[in-house]
Amino acid sequence: GGPGPGAPAPGPEGSAGRDEAAGDLDVLRQQLAEAPAEVVVANHCYGLFELAAVYLSETSPRLDNARLAIDALGCLVDGLGERLGEAHAPLRDALAQIRLAFVQIAAADQGAGGRTGQPGSTGTGTGTGNGAGAGPSPGASRAPAT
To answer: How far apart are CA 129 and CA 68, in angstroms?
Structure first.
């Protein structure tokens, strides 16, 4: 049971590498602690937007995965609102855009006979493209599978 492949070798070189990595981690933690929470949360929101866009842009769109990312983004943007600071308005707009894209892609996929989403799933009701949180979730425009 020695170290596995790719593990640092025991001895001075291995411990120096671990010390350097621990120091780097401490610097990153300090930078994170100094950043305003609304900036960090907004960055995660943009990550969810990008994740949904990746799933939607695949040759065979992964609608269930995109729906989850969009719904999570909606929970943050709609739930936190103005607490997101300056990022709220652009995130609200981005949420509306990705919801609209989802509905359009899901409709096209359904029209083409695609079954990339969960049959019969209607989403969680986080809203349509208006950013107000009213109406069906991105997947609600899809007809249940028959």
So the answer is: 16
Q: What is the pLDDT averaged over residues 85-105?
A: 98
Task: Say which residues have a Cβ less than 8 Å from residue 27's Cβ, sequence separation at least 6.
Answer: none
Contact 118, 64 (CB under 8 A): yes
Q: Which residue in the block uniquely carries the two structure tokens 């900036």?
A: 39
Is 25 strand, coil or helix?
A: helix
For residue 139 the two structure tokens come to 């997947």
Q: Count the helices and strands in the chain (H runs, E runs).
A: 4, 0
Measured CA to CA, the distance from residue 71 to residue 80 in angstroms comes to 14
- The predicted model scores a pTM of 0.65
Q: Measured between alpha carbons, how far is 91 from 114 in angstroms, rounded to an integer?
A: 30
pLDDT value at 43 more than 60: yes
